[in-house]
Design brief:
With 844 residues, the protein is α+β, with helices and mostly antiparallel strands. It folds into three domains: 290 residues, no CATH class; 63 residues, Dna Ligase, domain 1 (2-Layer Sandwich), CATH 3.30.1490; 315 residues, no CATH class. Helices cover 44% and strands 12% of the residues. It contains 28 helices and 22 strands. Strands 4, 5, 17, 18, 19, 20 and 21 form a seven-stranded antiparallel sheet that branches. α3 crosses α11, α14 packs antiparallel against α20 and α21 runs antiparallel to α24. It starts with 12 loop residues before the first helix and ends in a 12-residue tail after the last helix. The N terminus and C terminus are likely disordered.
Length: 844
């Protein structure tokens, strides 16, 4: 790292052996080999901390990332769609004076692009006066003709803007891409800050780092000013394409952080030119939509008819002025790389000044002279499509052979207007910590600005992305890149900011819980059902495994057979398990169900369903609840190839799963507000437990007329009711008493009667059950189920018919199962399927 005899950076080379490459600008070390002044404090602190302490702290950081479920969806990844977020513990530092210049440049650029959008969707002076080629507008798929002439609140099209910045070897910043459609990454920048400030709190405090809350406070204030009717407590929603979008985690995180409702297109509808949110209590008006969905997907009626992601009629609602959208529809028009070639002239024409940060040198091949330059210099340029298109990657001319360049030029000559060429920027490097050392990696800084008054407020920091190696120039997370927190020091102690409204803006007290979207209620309902499925399967296996080693005795043997029979009836084991080759064969089959290396067993699928549904509810369940559920998949891992399948190990892991599910249940009971969300979660649990317990009694007792003690003890164990039974009856285990406890006892939280009583109570509190002259179908079914159990006589149920079968018990349980499934269907039709074409418009 030494150059021309320069001294080693104090504490840097000795501790970290950091060696930046002289051909690139390095953010931490100058050309003279010395640490830059604004980096000296943090690098000295890291050197004093040492490898061991930083490694210990970063282990905590990785744990936080994992527990918070910070992920990035990677398309086409065969291992997993959701990949853990990659974050480096060493932040990027930017000098305060340099940041002021960047702020001014980003504010100027956002203002320029917003002015262009206002003209292109309005008077189109830029086209008439030939300041911008019409082909870059009218042939651009992001130019939305239905949006022409629509007045936007305050004349602002670009509410949120971001730019990707890179620094060349001479230290000059360049804009290499503009993000104007639905800029992503601000939420990840905030998450990076939360993690790093927790891992390095002393360094963060000593550096007087500017906080990000001011940006998000302005962000929220800007959206509130868009409310058409200027209501005091407006409804703002964040529109996401759904859980398969690459940045879905960020959508859920921002919705929760900002206090907005996370919605998909199917959660919204348009009636009489008003956008309405589908909720359990009816349709509620939406005032502002913060969209994270591409322009053309927002309205299948007027924009893109082959997509089901949007809201039919949304454009007309915007045209009518009843809803505002940020960013305005059509703002993706100026994202084209070709636009950058005309920005210097447009800035002088529209703003009367030169660009404060230039775009990377750009040539649109639709013009003769620029294309001739590209033909001669292709080996030194990067070729991109004129209009961004999914799946089309930049082509680096330097990496092409002579034949490949010739083929590319032939394609470009056929349609030159479809190509843009840009100068290849040698990205600067920044220290990245890996394996106890600091290594140089290329970086791109994404900065963010939000409209504020007549200008823009720039986030004091941003999302720094780094390459996976020094040989790569690709910082995309899709291609294995990583990220960093970005620190901008302040001039003085940074004040504490909050997103809560000041006391000068009081609101009326509200305990309303009727604005729950139907999709969210559906997910909560199924989260309750899936957790119960996992719990029962685990309890059955946990009851069977200890009895396998005691099969020399009759009672334990019959208990094992009963547990296997129930697992077969529930679909967890195949039909030949019961007839397996002795205890060893049965043990192997059951342990394979627990240690499922392929993820193909029903238990593995149910655990994955719990995780998947919990992921969809990130903005609705507490962080503690999420952490509990996210651990489920880790508690029954596939064993290593050489690891024997041990019963003792399996029992330990099954116990951990039970403890996790019990913790989740406790968090639900003690932490969730008793609204419709909690109610549907508990309805799902009670409904599923009723079904599962009916199956247990049917295949555990009803089919085993005169069941022996081994069967009954196994059933009690599965139902977690052994202690209750023993505390009541100091005698032998009798089927009539077991049935009384598990079927009709309304004070036993594991009995069918208890579940049905809870279902009746919950359903009576649902919106459609209120103010009804006649109970809705789901309420009638639930009441009928409870009544049937309350009126049954245990002695009649256990009286054998002429064939010796307990026909009455089997008939009752079969009827219960059929009616419970009917109840599930009735709830789905009423609240989840949106089959009703018209609902009342509820007051906000």
């Amino acid at each position: 790292m030494k150059k021309d005899g320069a001294a080693s950076p104090p504490g840097l080379e000795a501790q970290w052996r950091y060696q930046p490459q002289p051909v690139y600008h390095d953010e931490a070390v100058g050309a003279d080999g010395r640490v830059r002044e604004h980096w000296r404090g943090i690098l000295d602190s890291l050197a004093a901390m040492g490898h061991g302490e930083l490694a210990r702290r970063w282990q905590e950081g990785r744990r936080v990332i994992h527990e918070n479920g910070i992920t990035y969806n990677v398309y086409g990844d065969p291992k997993s769609t959701a990949r853990p977020w990659t974050l480096d513990p060493v932040p990027l530092l930017i000098d305060a004076a340099e940041w002021k210049r960047l702020e001014a440049a980003i504010t100027q650029r956002a203002t320029l692009l917003n002015t262009m959008l206002a003209d292109l969707y309005g008077p189109q002076r830029l086209l008439r006066e030939r300041m911008l080629p019409p082909r870059l507008v009218f042939e651009n798929p992001n130019f939305l003709r239905p949006c022409c002439g629509i007045e936007v609140p305050g004349g602002t099209h670009l509410h949120i803007y971001s730019a990707d910045l890179a620094r060349s070897p001479d230290g000059q910043w360049w804009v290499i891409a503009d993000r104007t459609q639905a800029p992503s990454g601000a939420g990840y920048a905030l998450e990076n800050r939360l993690v790093i400030s927790r891992v390095l709190p002393d360094l963060f405090g000593d550096g007087q780092v500017q906080r990000l809350a001011s940006y998000f406070q302005t962000y929220r204030d800007t959206l509130l000013k868009l409310v058409p009717s200027h209501r005091e407590n407006p409804r703002v929603v964040l529109l996401t394409p759904g859980p398969y979008n690459e940045t879905y985690f960020e959508h859920a995180f921002l919705a929760r952080y900002l206090g907005y409702t996370l919605v998909e297109g199917g959660d919204l509808t348009v009636r009489e030119n008003r956008v309405l949110l589908k909720t359990l209590g009816g349709l509620l008006p939406v005032d502002v939509i913060l969209r994270r969905q591409d322009d053309s997907f927002c309205d299948p009626l007027e924009l893109r008819g082959d997509s089901m992601l949007g809201v039919p009629g949304l454009v007309q609602a915007v045209r009518s002025g009843t809803v505002a959208i940020a960013n305005a529809l059509g703002s993706g028009l100026v994202e084209s790389a070709a636009t950058a070639a005309f920005l210097p002239g447009l800035c002088r024409q529209l703003l009367g000044e030169d660009l404060k940060i230039p775009s990377v040198a750009t040539w649109w091949c639709g013009q003769k002279e620029p294309f001739e330059f590209v033909e001669k210099n292709l080996a030194n340029l990067v070729v991109k499509p004129t209009f961004p298109s999914f799946g089309k990657q930049p082509i680096f001319g330097a990496k092409l052979s002579a034949n490949e360049r010739s083929e590319l030029l032939e394609q470009m000559r056929a349609r030159p207007d479809q190509y843009v060429a840009q100068e290849q920027v040698s990205l600067s490097t920044v220290p990245v910590w890996d394996e106890g050392r600091l290594h140089p990696r290329h970086m791109v800084l994404r900065v963010y600005a939000v409209a504020s008054g007549d200008g823009y407020h720039v986030m004091p920091g941003g999302l720094t992305r780094v390459t996976s190696s020094l040989d790569s120039l690709v910082v995309s997370m899709q291609k294995g890149g990583g990220s960093k927190d970005t620190w901008v020091p302040g001039d003085e102690t940074v004040p504490h900011l909050t997103l809560l409204r000041p006391a000068s803006h009081p609101l009326e007290i509200s305990r309303a819980t009727f604005d729950l979207p139907s999709r969210v209620a559906d997910n909560l309902f199924w989260l309750g059902r899936y957790t119960e499925r996992v719990e029962l399967a685990v309890r059955i296996v946990r009851a069977i495994l200890p009895r396998l080693s005691e099969e020399s005795e009759r009672s334990p043997s019959s208990g094992v057979e009963t547990g296997i029979r129930i697992l077969q009836a529930l679909g967890y084991l195949t039909g030949d398990t019961l007839a397996g080759a002795g205890p060893e064969g049965r043990e192997r089959d059951i342990l394979s169900m627990v240690y499922d290396s392929e993820g193909a067993s029903p238990l593995s699928r149910h655990m994955e369903q719990v995780r998947s549904v919990a992921w969809l509810l990130r903005d609705r369940i507490s962080g503690d609840a999420w952490r509990v559920l996210s651990r489920l998949g880790e508690q029954l891992p596939a064993p290593a190839t050489a690891e024997p399948l041990l019963v003792s190990t399996a029992l330990d892991r099954l116990n951990e799963v039970i403890l996790s599910l019990s913790a989740f249940s406790g968090l639900v009971m003690e932490g969730m507000t008793r609204g419709d969300g909690w109610r549907f979660l508990d309805i799902g649990r009670r409904l599923e437990r009723s079904i599962q317990m009916s199956e247990v009694l049917r295949y555990g007792i009803a089919e085993q007329c005169g069941a022996d003690a081994g069967v009954l003890e196994a059933v009690l164990d599965i139902a977690d009711s052994s202690i209750t039974y023993r505390s009541r009856y100091l005698t032998s285990v009798l089927p009539e008493l077991v049935l009384d406890l598990l079927l009709v006892d309304e004070v036993n939280p594991r009995s069918i009667a208890f579940q049905l009583a809870q279902l009746v109570e919950h359903i009576d509190q649902l919106p459609e059950s209120q103010n009804k002259i006649r109970r809705p179908q789901e309420a009638r079914v639930a009441l009928g189920l409870l009544t049937a159990v309350q009126l049954c006589e245990i002695n009649e149920l256990t009286r054998p018919d002429p064939t010796g079968r307990w026909f009455a018990l089997d008939t009752l349980l079969g009827h219960q199962l059929a009616e419970l499934r009917l109840l599930s269907e009735a709830l789905t039709r009423r609240y989840f399927s949106h089959a009703v074409a018209s609902r009342r418009l509820s007051a906000p």
